[in-house]
Amino acid sequence: MATEPITREIAGTCVNEFGSAIGMPQLCIDWFGNQIFWLIVALVAIYFILSRVALPRIGAVLAERQGTITNDIAAAEDLKVKATEAEAAYDKALIDARAEAQQIIAAAKADIQADLDKAIAKADAEIAAKSAESEKAISEIRASAMENVEAVAKDTAEAIVAAVGGSADAKTISAAVDARMKG
């Protein structure tokens, strides 16, 4: 079959005699009606697809997201309140523990002081008893020493009198030593 040229009356102004488009077919005024019809059909189809399928899914996702964000913010506020309460309870417990520790320290100091006072009183009593014993022993030693000094003095005086060539009786020597020892 031979290609016959198409007449311009049938094809219109947008097609040459061989049926090929002249220029861009989208800009041909003869085809605008057809293009506008299919554009409206495509837009209506896209609108119905988006409004019936995609937009409800997107809306559900956005609503779920908003709900999650709201719940998370509420949970965060609750946790913040709980944390503040826990911090206050911790501070109170710390203050109570410090006060109790001070009371325990004070009680321990009082007990130690009482034990120390008892020990000091016991030590003082022992020291007083030993001091009294020592004083008694010292006075016995002093009395014994005085007797020994007196005996030695009498023996020495008798020996001196005998060495000098005199004679004296024990009563005279004893009276002379006693007088001298008294002052």
Percent strand equals under 5%
What's the total number of strands?
A: 0
Please count the helical segments. 3
- Major sheet characteristics: none
The overall average pLDDT, rounded, is: 86
- Radius of gyration of CA atoms, rounded to a whole number: 67 Å
Could you give the distance between the termini?
183 Å
Q: What low-confidence regions span 5 or more consecutive residues with pLDDT below 50?
A: 6-10
Topology as H/E string? Answer: HHH
For the record, the count of structural domains works out to: 1
Global outline: rod-shaped
List keywords for this structure.
about 180 residues; mainly alpha; 3 helices; rod-shaped; transmembrane helix; CF(0); proton-transporting ATP synthase activity, rotational mechanism; ATP synthase subunit b; cell membrane
